[in-house]
Write a structure and sequence with these properties.
Elements lengths: L11 E6 L6 H9 L4 E8 L7 H9 L6 E6 L4 H5 L4 E4 L15 H18 L4 E4 L4 H14 L8 E3 L2 H15 L10 E3 L6 E3 L12 H12 L1 H8 L8 H18 L4 E7 L9 E8 L2 E5 L7 H27 L1
Parallel strand pairs: 1-2, 1-4, 2-3, 4-5, 5-6
Antiparallel strand pairs: 6-9, 7-8, 9-10, 10-11
Helix pairs in contact: 1-2, 1-9, 4-5, 5-10, 6-7
Length: 327
Amino acid sequence: MSSAYPYGPPKHKVCLLGASGGIGQPLAMLLKLNPMINELALYDIKQAATPCPGVAADVSHIDTNTKVGGFAGDEEMAAALKGSSVVVISAGVPRKPGMTRDDLFNINAKIVKGLAEACLKHTPTAMILIITNPVNSTVPIAAEVFKKAGAYDWRRILGVTTLDCVRASTFVAEKAKVEVKSVNVPVIGGHAGETILPLLSQVAAASGFSASDIEALDKRIQDAGTEVVNAKNGAGSATLSMAYAASKFTDHVLMGISGVKQTCCCYIGQPQGDCAFFANQVEIGPNGVSRIMDLPKLSPFETRRLAEAKKKLVGDIQSGIDFVHNN
């Protein structure tokens, strides 16, 4: 990330919920390095394995000007959230070997619902960026909480799918033997298994790949999270790469709301066919997402995959909506 921006001194407060976790700790460090942030509030439950005030003390020693505060427990939630431009939600349990993102639903759905209610109460106009899986369902949960209160703004509640784009670009660059900085793979659909659809037809570096190459890359990108879970052999899921991706997306959001329009991918509450929520390329401006990009012309393979992704996505979305209404 750049150390200097063309639009003035740092002015944003960012609150990270779940800052003591496997994603939260490296993400807290990366956010401390962001020159757009003048205040970083790190929050977690009191029973976190590493007390959040300790994470904050550790991160605060990094030599940047961002002020860092550590908060723990319900009684400190308001102080953590108030005045935030951006809230990043990484709280929840990670995947373990054999678990799907759906297995996480009952635990993480309750966590996200509670945190969304806290955001609604203490910082209702902040940009809310949701990392907690299953994103296909947790973003609709947060949206439904705001809808029930008559405070929903689809431009400001976003699912972080940047890791899918990061992985796709990395894998394509490796296979094509090109600089990864020259590769930008848009990823649409959702953020779990077959709902993840990388648009390799839109990437020049992939233009020489065979049909079997495309199918193999598509499958690897879908299963990349499981690849990490299995490689860690029960010790966790993707934390470092997810922290990097979330930091990258937060940077896009901060630049966008500061007046420098950004184009990136995220999961958002704007319909695509039967799907009320859908990951797509968007433009982010001062008021949040300002534009949803039209889908490009897809290859026959991508067209078939999109139909499959939507079937799964519809159920994931409904699970999130039903959870709020039944709890």
